[in-house]
Amino acid sequence: MSQNNNKFGNACLCISNYALLLYLLIVDEETAKNDTYYVFGKAIDKKVLNKITPNIFVPSRNGNSIKDVVMRFWDKMRLRNFWDDKPVDLNTCTFYAQDHAFLSILLRNVDYKLLSDCPNYFTINMQEGSSEYRKLEKNKHSLAGKLQRLMYGDVAVSTFGNNSHCKEIYLTEENISPVLKGKLLHEKSMQELWNESTESKKRFIENIFDVDREELKCFDGKVIFFSQPLVEDGNMSEAEYVEYIKKIFGQYDTSKLLIKTHPRDKFDYQSLFPEIQIYTKPINAQLLVLMGLNVDRVATICSSAVYTFPESVEIDWYANSNPIMKAYCNGTIKPFRKYNDIVL
Questions:
Q1: How much is the pTM?
Q2: N or C: which end of the chain has fewer CB within 10 A?
């Protein structure tokens, strides 16, 4: 924070642990600790909130009732004046941000540097033929999109850097997308950023996510299954999900299986699979690998968490074992290296 005007030099806006980890790796430790104002939402765990300050958490309102819809509209209207009483000068502060969900409203009048949402996000989702890109383009040109732009600004309908306010994009690997044209791109892997970090900064990051190196021993000799909030996000019903994962877990010796839950996955695995070890800390797979996680095999339906593992680690990919998830992935969501495409 500047001694002259009591304002923060940086603002970090993120709703995923991946983006938060990326920001902490990009900036130096002093800036992360003392010159950044944090705005969090969605998947950022409360334990993380308690470790990094100052921050403000903006909760999401779910539900499709008339009341929910009205309250979401009211929440968005209030967010238009979000910065009025915050220790941030919009003219001088450097914004590092994810720009979707409610964060887009907070970026309506400022230029920003985009924090990538996950590995290979643009290559997977922001191609002209991809379903996500088509959905965003359709909304942008619709009547609803035009009203959103009028009320909340251009970023609200042109997310993921596809607007004039996004000047720079931080990527952890090379991506290909028309959205990237004209942007200043910073391409550096998390491993490179980690190697460039001081030991003090590494311990600081490990403390933020509440993990120590001794904990890594619980993964030894295990097959790690990376879960996703597929029920919470409405991709499938709970009954469909239970049937799906029972088939997947049946492929392994459950005494050697470990479920690493997604931060937003609230499914009760313990009740259905008491024999399987479960790791629920809201820690990125990327951070675990950076800290020296050593496993031979990982499994998932279609989580990008497995992208971070080196070629020496086997990936069991189950997206094509279910018609719902096969349609969802549409042949574009998949690891960008050799993997086992398992169809049950």
A1: 0.90
A2: C
